[in-house]
Amino acid sequence: MKNYLPVAILLALLIAIFFLLKGSGQGSKTQSDRLSVPVEVGPFNVYVNATGELKAKNSEKIRGPRQLRNIGIWQVTISDIVPEGTLVKEGEYVATLDRTEIETRMRDIQTEIDKVQTQLDQTKIDTAIELRSIRDQLVNLEFSMRDKQLELEQSIYEPRSTQQRAEIELAKAKRDFEQLKKKYELSKTKAQAQVSEILASLRQLQNRMQQFQEAHADFTIKAPKDGMVIYARSWRGKIGPGSQIDVWDPVVAELPDLSVMLSKSYVNEVDISKVQKGQDVEVKVDAFPGKSYKGIVIQVANVGEQLRSYDSKVFEVNIELMETDSILRPAMTTSNEILVYTFDSVMHIPIEALMTDSINYVFKKEASGKVVRQEIVVGESNDTHVIVAGGLGTEDQVLLSIPTNANDLPLVQMDPEQKKRLRDKLEKERQQRQQEALEKMKRVREEYQPETKSQSGTFIIMG
Fold first, then answer.
1. Which of 96, 110, 160, 355 has its CA 20 to 30 A from that of 314?
2. Which pLDDT value is given to residue 304?
3. According to CATH, what is the number of the domain 36-58+263-463?
């Protein structure tokens, strides 16, 4: 009896494994049935999705002092600015820049001005003293000459030697007088040159101080016209209190014209080849679910850039909204669906059903329930579906998952001539769509010119 016990246990295990595998096979069959879908026929759109941010197409920039470069200040901190969204009138207060550096410079210049002014006063005093001394000497020499002249006149009754001595003394006195007179003229010219040099330095410092004073006044920034204050953006992010502006682009804020809005978007480098100027766009604003606006692509960047929030390089795409709405505000996030191509009625299948190896094929489920690998020719695709140009019929069904026995399934290949004809047709249609896109692109007016960025990763905007 004990010898039959292991045999009975083994038999029971084999029976259990048999029913388990049978159930698994039925489940797989049921799953295959559930994951098969029919070939769809109908309209098909190829689109590119992009997230963007609203901004005004036209805006008045509120700039900091334009003299910053002239006075040698390269960066300034915004110490205070009105809240974003504030409505201001022309001439009203917008922001204040930190005056610490400019006031330090102004104090240094004032010190230099005081020093030069003192030097000027001292030079004038020294010059006056020196010239007065020379004038006194000239007066004394003039009296000396007169005295020598009298001595010469009185020596006519004296011996000849005495007369000659008197003549020599008079000539010497006249020579000393003329020399001192020339010295006076030279000293006067020298003094005037010294004073002129000091005055030139003083005027230069005063002009410098005037530049600083004008710039200092502009550190209180006012609105150039009526509008809503929107903080400017730089490569560092949004500008606000504590942000720095530099001399090359001293923009503090903007007063946007809300009548025409843009969506500044970024498209992944994988999809940018599909995007062209003139394409229609459906723009949805995240703040207002259920509302959408018509738009059109008006600019596409020619060179990509690496942004912090993206894993790969992206290209800037600007979309103009063709509708106006008073509820739209700058900086609102948008979801943009750029329509690349549209087809009225084509066969298409879920992109999960497409298998790609050396050929494109699907797992087709025939009417008998048999599954085969069916070669197909595909056309354009979007995020969810792909167009089937040939290889399937409108009544066929395809599997969305790979069967467990996929390698054992027969492959039904298409006729090579038929494949060539279909591919030639697809290429001709593609060229035709490309030509239509180019014609549409030409109709877009060359109005908007995005700002060219100057930091590393610069991109150029193509028209």
1. 355
2. 86
3. 2.40.30.170
